[in-house]
Specification:
By secondary structure, the chain is an all-alpha fold. The protein has helices at about 1-10, 20-25, 35-60, 65-80, 95-115, 115-125, 130-150, 150-170, 175-185, 195-215, 220-230, 240-250, 255-275, 280-290, 305-310, 315-320, 325-345, 355-360, 370-380, 385-400, 410-445, 445-455, 460-475, 480-500, 505-515, 525-535, 540-550, 550-560, 570-595, 605-615, 620-640.
Length: about 650
């Protein structure tokens, strides 16, 4: 990949500070600066946390309350070691006294529960005053860490729910009793902080985060970019297609939109600009492809594990059913960049600029950990945790054959430390999402919301789908995907289920629209990160990315209205049919948006093509036939009127 980085750097007039971009758009990157001995000590604590998580999830048989509270105690401890109180330049090897106080008090509150779990369970609802104080401090420490590592929007949402619970949701006239009940449910039971999100995080997600940290150090990201360049880099608009293919592959091991955008975009965006793509389009293509990483099996970000727990199905089922929608999403982005390249007459990279395919095949063994993980998860012969643990061992073994990225004892330690740090934001987001979900449950707010939306939508499922989509996108503008899904799964998914949408399709629907918020203006962090690398207009980039990712806005409606795409109550023929019509439909919609089908399209053809594409995507024989007629008519017109001059590419 070094060759491509040099070429990319040559395109930019000014060197791009990727670390600064990450710090600006990804709160996880705003960390304290530790050097020398303090850095070693902090990394030892992070690595110890990873080892602790592996041991607990694989071997220990602790009481649930003990396991969850000790996990969150560790999160509070390492969280304040890693994240400072504010953004900006950090003093080296410095942590202020008030952070130490918050860290110690917060950790102590969770450990109090850990060491007194049996007594607290027997105690029931009769809390002492000091226990209420402990609960409040523990929750506040979690919220402050959330502000530092995740951001304010989710805290604003959580704060609104807390105010609602204390003023209207809990009906006891005595405020102290309402406060007692709230703190007990949120901190001293498994209905708040320690509910399903944190449970799933501590059991499953942590192992996969550690696996991703190890896999990253095998050099697989470089391999993905090089193999993508070798396969599609030479075609028209090659670098953009490389971005799509590489991001799809990287998405199998990473679930962060911004991290994917910056990691791949540092290479692909400058090359796209060199090829002739406009800066906004180059940044948007990378951002839309990278955001799709969260829907790409087998890892799919943290929310997929929560979905399996919420629905009560094996994680392998989620992975299998996610394949078709993910392929259609990336097909839509690929088609869009292809049409843009044809429209602008853009060429691919020259042979001299492309990596040789034969040497890359010798490194195909780097994929073995992923293949093994998919096999073990799919076979169901082992638990998800054991499958991921075996894949970690496999990643270490395959690295021994790669001289450039051989995992040494030092790198094992670094991988464990990176895995430990990577857990903080996910665990914190899950904890705060648990608070929101707990309040929704204890106040009965979910039933109120469900009844209101069902009454508003009547018997029109499409209205409920549109309202749910808007809720997910608005909430997702500042709330991480994991937390967004937790909230939507507790509020909006039951609405869709009440209106006849299958459970799995309803949860996939809210999952998808929580993800596309990273591309949707006005808070499109992945698009803004790409714009920073491309030195492009951020808002134009966000709108372009939304247009490119049109598949993510269409595909959820397809499987909500016709669950055959998720292999629900269907036959092989129905699956094939819906794949064909959806693919043609997405091609038609992308053509209409790009203004290019087989050649440039006049306005009336764009309207016809858009209508035909949407009809093809909407399930039903009549709509499919009408859609095919409309799109086919445009294709015939394009062929008949095609200029006889040679094509640009």
């Amino acid at each position: 990949m070094a060759l491509f980085k040099k070429k990319a750097a040559a395109v930019e007039q000014e060197p791009m500070d990727l670390e600064a971009v990450m710090k600006k758009y990804d709160r996880e990157s705003n960390t304290r600066v530790w050097e020398g001995v303090p850095k070693i000590i902090v990394n030892c604590v992070l690595a110890a946390f990873s080892v602790f998580c592996l041991y607990v999830t694989l071997f220990a048989t602790l009481l649930e309350e003990v396991r969850l509270t000790s996990f969150m105690a560790f999160i509070i401890l390492i969280g304040y070691l890693v994240f400072p109180a504010k953004k900006g330049k950090q003093r080296v090897n410095y942590i202020p006294w008030y952070d130490i106080v918050i860290m110690v008090l917060g950790t102590a509150c969770y450990l109090y529960f850990t060491f007194n779990a049996h007594a607290i369970i027997k105690q029931g609802s009769r809390l002492e005053v000091f226990q209420i104080v402990i609960g409040i401090i523990g929750i506040l420490a979690l919220c402050e860490l959330c502000r530092r590592s995740v951001g304010l929007p989710i805290l604003i949402v959580a704060g609104c729910f807390v105010v609602y619970a204390l003023i209207w949701g809990l009906t006891n006239p005595d405020f102290s009793i309402r406060l007692n009940l709230l703190i007990r449910n949120l901190f001293f039971t498994k209905e708040g902080v320690f509910s399903t999100p944190v449970d799933v995080c501590s059991k499953f997600i942590v192992v996969f985060i550690i696996f991703g940290a190890f896999l990253e150090r095998t050099g697989i990201a470089d391999f993905f970019i090089n193999i993508s360049n070798a396969v599609v880099g030479g075609f028209s608009g090659g670098p953009a297609k490389v971005a799509v293919v590489a991001s799809a592959m990287e998405g199998m091991v990473s679930g962060s939109s911004v991290a994917n955008t910056v990691g791949s975009g540092a290479v692909t965006i400058p090359l796209m600009k060199k090829t002739g793509y406009k800066p906004e389009f180059a940044a948007a293509a990378e951002a839309s492809a990278s955001t799709g990483g969260q829907i790409m099996p087998p890892i799919m970000g943290a929310a997929a594990f929560l979905m399996a727990a919420n629905i009560g199905v094996p994680y392998s089922d989620i992975v299998v059913r996610a394949i078709l929608p993910a392929v259609l999403y990336f097909a839509g982005v690929f088609i869009a960049v292809h049409l843009e390249a044809k429209k602008e007459g853009l060429r691919g990279l020259s042979r001299e600029e492309l990596p040789k395919f034969k040497p890359l095949l010798k490194k195909v063994y780097l994929l073995l950990p992923l293949v093994l993980l998919v096999y073990l998860v799919g076979s169901g012969s082992n638990s998800i945790q054991y499958a991921a643990a075996i894949a970690i061992v496999a990643a270490i073994l395959v690295s021994l054959f790669n001289k450039e990225n051989r995992i040494t004892p030092k790198r094992i330690w670094e991988s464990l430390a990176a895995g430990g740090q990577g857990m903080i934001t996910v665990a914190v987001a899950c904890g705060v999402a648990g608070i929101i979900a707990g309040i929704i449950t204890m106040t009965g707010l979910a039933n109120v919301i469900i009844s209101g939306v069902v009454a508003l939508a009547g018997d029109k499922v499409i209205i409920a789908l549109v309202l749910t989509m808007l809720c997910c996108i608005v909430l997702g503008m500042g709330v991480p995907t994991t937390a967004n899904y937790c909230i939507m799964a507790a509020t909006c998914a039951p609405i869709l289920i009440r209106m006849g949408v299958p459970d799995l399709a309803a949860h996939f629907f809210v999952f998808y629209f929580g993800i596309v918020a990273d591309l949707t203006p006005p808070v499109a962090l992945a698009a803004y990160a790409g714009a920073a690398i491309a030195q492009a207009n951020p808002m134009k980039t966000a709108f372009t990315a939304t247009k490119l990712a049109i598949g993510a806005f269409i595909v959820p409606y397809v499987f909500a209205l016709n669950p055959a795409m998720l292999f629900i109550d269907t036959t092989a023929w129905e699956v094939v049919l819906i794949c064909i019509t959806s693919f043609v439909g997405i091609y038609a919609v992308s053509s209409a948006l790009q203004g290019y089908f087989l050649q440039h399209m006049p306005w009336y053809q764009r309207i016809i093509c858009l209508a035909g594409g949407l009809l093809l995507i909407y399930p039903g024989l009549v709509t499919d036939v009408i859609g095919l007629v409309l799109v086919g008519g445009v294709a015939v017109l394009q062929i008949l009127t095609k200029k006889r001059t040679p094509a640009k590419v």
